[in-house]
Amino acid sequence: TDLAAFAHGLPKAELHLHLEGTLEPELKFALAARNGIELDETTVEEVRATYDFTDLTSFLAVYYPAMRVLQAAEDFHDLAWAYLQKAAAQGVVHAEMFFDPQAHTGRGVPFDTVITGYRRAVVRAQDELGISAELILCFLRDFSAEYAMATLMEALPYKAWIVGVGLDSDERDNPPTKFAEVFARAKAEGFFLTMHCDIDQVGSIDNIRAVIEQIGVDRIDHGTNIVEDPSLVALAKERGLGFTTCPVSNSFVTAQMKSDEIVSLLNAGLKVTVNSDDPAYFGGYVGDNYVALAEHAGLGAADLVRLAINSFEASWLTASRRADFI
Ligand code: ES4
Ligand code: ZN
């Protein structure tokens, strides 16, 4: 449709994207072959058949084991480069991409290997596609705060390649305050801060309140349960906090797109953005997410333009670079 073409062509920033969530089955096979790793599945269809997610837990149970095909810096480069080319084809002119170093260091791949490979793709995207990209280091919240702090320390020599830090993986029993000290240190080091506040988690609204009032984040990933507390909505608006929503991902991990919540926050004037989360697993890159939300919620071109403007306003581009886009 015309609106779909418009959504894909609209220049936009993507702010909620897990690089490890961009591993398409075809690349998984190629990397497995290159690294001499045997996979249980032999066809793309067999791999896709394992993508039978009903919630976050069933997703993460497929997501982490797949990463073992990533071994050398070249593998991390190839993963990020494949994503950046697809993103550029869907109108992305700037990407701030999460990576999960602990998912690799925890199985013996050095931090330097991971970030060197990803960084090469970032530089290449600027050179060959003319788009900018940044890396956001995510801590895995189901591991200890001590391991997160050690990972932050390991990252400090690479500070120039990392724009901010985030928090992902299983939120249950792993509230934001568990990582208060790690995020305070990251802030003191000059990193921007964001945290996942997943949809309909137990104690969601309390976690959202904590990331705003105690952690002092610059953005919230997902976070749409904030609609439950109008005073927090007002505070988020006053602070200009960005919200990185992921409609297609929501449909998988909660069985609902949460479009009413997304649109209500957008119309309340919050810096709501639309993003793809784990596109290889959920089957939609960022333009596809704009289209899915537009179709589900009956949005028009003006709403999509608002979402795209928000994506630059909620980005961590410098003010002068941001002004190139809006
Ligand atoms: C994630 Cl959908 C989702 N939720 C939490 N952590 C994640 N890491 C990658 N995708
Ligand atoms: Zn996410």
Automatic annotation (TrEMBL):
Catalytic activities: adenine + H2O + H(+) = hypoxanthine + NH4(+)
Binding-site residues, substrate: 278
A molecular-function term among this protein's GO annotations: zinc ion binding
Entry cofactors: Zn(2+)
Superkingdom classification of source: Bacteria
Residue positions binding Zn(2+): 16, 18, 196, 277
Site residues, Important for catalytic activity: 222
Keyword list, A-Z: Hydrolase, Metal-binding, Nucleotide metabolism, Zinc
Protein family per UniProt: Belongs to the metallo-dependent hydrolases superfamily. Adenosine and AMP deaminases family. Adenine deaminase type 2 subfamily.
Stated role: Catalyzes the hydrolytic deamination of adenine to hypoxanthine. Plays an important role in the purine salvage pathway and in nitrogen catabolism.
Designated name of the protein: Adenine deaminase
